Every structure is written in structure tokens, then in C-alpha cells.
């Protein structure tokens, strides 16, 4: 990789950790617009993991939203700094900040998309307000969604690693599993054990 590319990577990482990255700006811009429209939503995925203490970079923003609210947002704002990733896609792109927005539709299912005991919940039921008055999914919900996703798709090991890191950073006890959907509780207990292993050996 050319030296300039390494410098670019370092600069982008610095911007992200200082919360001044295009990803943060796109999230704030979308949050303002959805708030003005009085559309319930919550930020999920890696940006929610950041909000709950597991700081890592990401390339996009995930939001939890109802399908009818997404349709209303698209009708009013597509072509005004947001565009569909491709025709018929539920996901879209912030063309001001050049950032992808991935949507998690209420009532649909994480991971393989097949019916399971864990579904994407109504955002107003699971949202917690963090800095910039942005609603993020609660830690409990984030863990349930990441566990259900990791359990049903094999190409997303990052979801399980996020769970391990969130357990460590939030010092979650083993009995936190009892507050989770039973579908993911045993996997949480397994990953909790992994979180107790000291990496410094």
C-alpha cells in the first residue's frame, strides 16, 4: 500500500475516533431529518456498539425503522442528498457525505432473514438517547440482534466479536443472559466465557 494511502487510512481513523468522520456526519444529518419528520428510528449496528462503549470503525450507518416510515422518507427526500443504492433497494446512500445507510425493517429478521424468535423491534420500544440527541438501540437489543445474526449466518464473525467486546467493556455478568431472548441466551453464555479470557498471554 502506498505511503499516502496509509496516511489516508490513519487520517480517516482519527476522524472517526474524534467523531468528526463522514459516517458521524451522515448519521447526524439523517437523525435531524427523521426527527423533523417525527419518524421513530434508532441507530443500530456498529455505530450503536460505539455508543455502548465498543469503539471501532465502520463504513456505514444502520438504522431501525418501519417500512412505511422509510417509504415516506424516500418520497420526500430522495434526490435531495439521498439516493437508493440501486432500484428497489431498501438501503440508500447519503450523497452529501458519500456514506451508505442500511435499514433494518421492523418485523423482519436479523441474519439469514428467516423467521426466528428475535425480530427487529419497534424503535421507540428499544431506543436510548445518547449524545447529539440521537436514539440508539439499547445494549440488550444490540446484543440480541448481533447474537441472532451471528447464529444464522457464517460470514459475519464480527457480530460475535462485538458481543465479546461489549461484554468486556460493560462488565456484563453471566446472569445478564437471563434478560435476553431465550433464543440467544446460550450463545451469550458461551461468548461470555470467551470474554473472560485475558488476551495478554
Describe this structure in words.
The protein is an alpha+beta fold. The chain has a single domain, classed as Beta Polymerase, domain 2, CATH 3.30.460.40. 46% of the residues lie in helices and 14% in strands. The chain has eight helices and seven strands, in the order H-H-E-H-E-H-E-E-E-H-E-E-H-H-H. It has helices at residues 3-17, 22-36, 45-51, 67-77, 123-126, 139-152, 157-169, 182-195, and strands at residues 42-44, 60-65, 82-84, 92-94, 99-105, 127-129, 135-137. The chain has a five-stranded mixed beta sheet. It has a two-stranded antiparallel sheet with strand order 6-7. Strand 3 and strand 4 form a beta hairpin. The longest helix has 15 residues, at 3-17. The chain is globular, with a radius of gyration of 17 Å. The two termini are 31 Å apart. The model has no long low-confidence stretch (mean pLDDT 94).
Count of distinct structural domains:
1
Termini gap: 31 Å
Elements, N to C (H/E): HHEHEHEEEHEEHHH
Detail the poorly predicted runs: none
Shape: globular
Beta fraction of the residues? 5-15%
Number of strands: 7
Task: Walk across the major sheet and give the strand order.
Answer: 1-2-5-4-3
Which class do the helix and strand fractions yield?
A: alpha+beta
| Largest beta-sheet details | 5 strands, mixed
Amino acid at each position: 500500500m502506498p505511503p499516502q494511502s496509509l496516511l489516508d487510512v490513519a487520517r480517516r481513523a482519527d476522524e472517526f475516533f474524534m467523531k468528526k468522520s463522514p459516517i458521524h456526519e451522515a448519521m447526524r444529518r439523517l437523525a435531524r431529518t427523521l426527527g423533523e419528520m417525527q419518524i421513530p428510528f434508532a441507530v443500530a449496528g456498529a455505530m450503536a456498539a460505539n455508543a455502548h462503549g465498543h469503539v471501532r470503525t465502520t463504513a456505514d450507518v444502520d438504522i431501525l425503522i418501519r417500512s412505511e416510515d422509510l417509504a415516506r422518507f424516500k418520497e420526500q427526500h430522495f434526490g435531495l442528498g439521498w439516493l437508493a443504492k440501486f432500484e428497489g433497494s431498501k438501503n440508500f446512500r447519503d450523497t452529501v457525505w458519500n456514506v451508505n445507510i442500511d435499514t433494518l425493517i421492523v418485523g423482519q429478521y436479523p441474519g439469514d432473514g428467516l423467521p426466528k424468535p428475535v425480530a427487529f423491534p419497534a424503535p421507540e420500544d428499544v431506543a436510548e438517547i445518547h449524545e447529539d440527541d440521537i436514539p440508539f438501540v439499547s445494549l440488550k437489543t444490540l446484543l440480541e440482534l448481533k447474537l441472532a445474526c451471528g447464529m444464522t449466518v457464517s460470514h459475519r464473525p464480527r457480530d460475535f466479536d462485538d458481543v465479546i467486546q461489549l461484554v468486556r467493556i460493560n462488565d456484563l455478568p453471566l446472569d445478564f443472559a437471563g434478560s435476553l431472548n431465550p433464543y440467544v441466551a446460550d450463545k451469550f453464555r458461551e461468548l461470555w466465557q470467551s470474554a473472560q479470557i485475558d488476551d495478554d498471554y
